[in-house]
Write a structure and sequence with these properties.
Blueprint (H helix, E strand, L loop, with lengths): L4 E4 L5 E5 L15 E2 L5 E6 L15 H16 L4 H8 L1 E12 L8 E11 L3 E10 L5 E14 L10 H7 L1
Antiparallel strand pairs: 1-2, 3-4, 4-6, 5-8, 6-7, 7-8
Length: 171
């Protein structure tokens, strides 16, 4: 049975949106995501005061949160909500490895762009190449990361094959 995606519509009524790319009919009110023909997804992020340290630059650990938002919105862009995957298919994703490089600081109130590109797919994991660019500073490269996320059973946390619905979207 294919995974059906339901998004909350006006008045908190569930609206059936289909599976995978068919579920892209929803609007993103406050942000615009883009995906190119090379399968690079980008998501805008604004730097809030809470993201910065005393010097007004983004605290290093907060870049991980920006990267996570990018991967979450990429998955949503494909039509998959993580809570639905956990509840209906019994799977969730966990980061099992990451390499980061910081190139320059981002600052309070800057507009950033987080990119996501899947570079490798195994039976129970995916590798993402990600980058953060500072749109407020001529799209300067801020941070790069390679992230391996494993698909695990939501109860046992043991590896579980990627759902076929997601694999089909990556083809």
């Amino acid at each position: 049975m294919p995974l059906q995606i339901y998004l909350m519509g006006r008045g908190n009524k569930a609206v059936k949106k289909g599976t995978g790319r068919d579920a892209q009919g929803h609007k993103m009110d406050n942000a615009k995501a883009t995906a190119t023909s090379q399968h690079v997804f980008t998501w805008p992020v604004r730097v809030y005061y809470e993201d910065t340290d005393y010097g007004g630059v983004v605290y290093h650990a907060n870049y991980l949160r920006f990267l996570e938002r990018g991967r979450t919105e990429w998955l949503r862009h494909l039509g998959f909500e993580q809570d639905v995957l956990r509840e209906w298919l019994g799977v969730q994703f966990v980061v099992v490895g990451m390499q980061l490089a910081f190139h320059r600081p981002a600052r309070f109130n800057h507009e950033l762009s987080v990119s996501v590109k899947v570079t490798d797919v195994k039976s129970a994991s995916m590798v993402f190449d990600q980058a953060i660019f500072d749109a407020s500073d001529e799209n300067a490269l801020v941070c790069t990361a390679q992230v391996r996320a494993a698909c695990v059973d939501s109860v046992t946390l043991k590896p579980k094959p990627l759902p076929r619905e997601i694999v089909a979207e990556l083809a």
